[in-house]
Design a protein that fits this description.
Blueprint (H helix, E strand, L loop, with lengths): L17 E2 L5 E6 L11 E7 L8 E3 L2 E8 L1 E6 L2 E6 L3 E4 L4 E6 L5 E8 L7 E3 L2
Antiparallel strand pairs: 1-2, 2-3, 3-10, 4-9, 4-11, 5-8, 5-10, 6-7, 6-9
Length: 126
């Protein structure tokens, strides 16, 4: 923002939750195609309930996940790693991925997609 420009603030009430193609619940926080910000990336808040697993999917963009709550495992191609609150995870472009909630609490995360997420850049595999 330019000096003196108004603060651009977003609250959960400003962004409706929806079921994404991979079956996680998402809210788009910032997206350059939908908001008056000049960004090259998009930012979403996601959630996955206890015992749930997201569908395997592939994005053409890179992703960085930051986990806020919960406990689970994240699969990237043939690799499996555990995730919990405070974990940050990088997913390279073109990688097959899925998140599984192994705990009793909802997993919540922030996800930065760079370049910004577009429908045509994502493939759901199952």
């Amino acid at each position: 923002m330019a000096k003196g420009a108004p603060v651009f603030k977003v609250t959960p009430a400003d962004r409706p939750e929806f079921l994404a193609g991979d079956h996680t619940r998402l809210r788009e926080v910032f997206h350059p195609a939908k908001h008056p910000l000049k960004l090259g990336y998009s930012l979403a808040h996601g959630a996955l309930g206890p015992g749930q697993r997201s569908k395997w999917h592939v994005l053409n963009s890179s992703e960085v996940y930051y986990f806020l709550t919960g406990h689970g495992r994240f699969m990237i191609d043939e690799q499996v790693t555990t995730v919990e609150a405070g974990t940050t995870l990088y997913v390279p472009p073109g990688s097959k991925q899925s998140l599984e909630n192994m705990g009793t609490d909802t997993i919540e995360f922030l996800c930065v997609v760079d370049p910004a997420w577009k429908t045509e850049d994502e493939r759901i595999l199952e």
